[in-house]
Amino acid sequence: MPTILGQNQYGKAENRVVKITRDGDTHHIKDLNVSVALSGDMDDVHYSGSNANVLPTDTTKNTVYAFAKEHGIESAEQFGIHLARHFVTSQEPIHRARIRIEEYAWERIATSDANSKFIGSDEVRHSFARKGQELRTTQITFDGENWEVISGLKDLTVMNSTNSEFWGYVKDKYTTLKEAYDRILCTDVSAAWRYNWTSDEERMPNWEKSYEQAKKHILQAFAETYSLSLQQTLYQMGSRVINSRSEIDEIRFSLPNNHHFLVDLEPFGLKNDNEVYFAADRPYGLIEATILRDGVEPRIPVDMTNL
Ligand SMILES: O=c1[nH]c(=O)c2[nH]c(=O)[nH]c2[nH]1
Questions:
Q1: Which of 68, 189, 215, 251 has the fewest CB atoms within 10 Å distance of its CB?
Q2: GO molecular-function annotation terms (predicted)?
């Protein structure tokens, strides 16, 4: 049966590009998911396999990262217009470019009073929380006598665009990771904390206030810790909560290390001065630990996924 080729397009989908603009100590983030779809004279590649008109999808990916450096990312629209114009005007066989962009919005983390005097600002200039609500969780158990309340949050995405290093680790014959002295630290915080309120005889905590305060301490510890590992940051977040909230005796974290890899722009004659990153979604490091008030028995389940 004779067949003909109908509508067709191709390109690299979901290029996760993060651009950090460093204005002294104040950093700005643009975090985009860019999908490129090109069409034009592409009959031959489908009918005969001739690639003579095909700009590789890999090149479209590289162009996204190179343009982030060369033109910056002022807005998703401006960035998309640059890209679309480039593909259509520089490649004869390409007649149409469709660029779709999703933008992740970030806001700065408010600093603690002590730190605001130290840094001279109410916000940490390189620490961000992704906009949009985290999920708040709670689990209540009662056996007729004793209460156990474990509350927490999930998917609170935070990023430090500096003040994070990772070096001095074990190296065996499979280790290829380069030591990092200024890296992005980004994670989706999942935390669960256990209240020491167990009986109707005791005064009940103010659950709303406690949640707000625990979240605030987690965010501030993340922003204010100069991190040598995500493990160290985790411990700081937990101990800040335990030390500031007497109603909480135990807290557990599950923290994915959302890796951001510097893109090598040398092949395009561009220098990447800690500006353009590839945000990988998997695999990710997963760092998990419980922090306890001294003398307290751990009760939060190791596997927090069902909390
Ligand atoms: O903060 C980190 N902790 C690790 O244990 C680790 N391992 C790794 O490869 N990168 C990182 N980063």
A1: 215
A2: urate oxidase activity
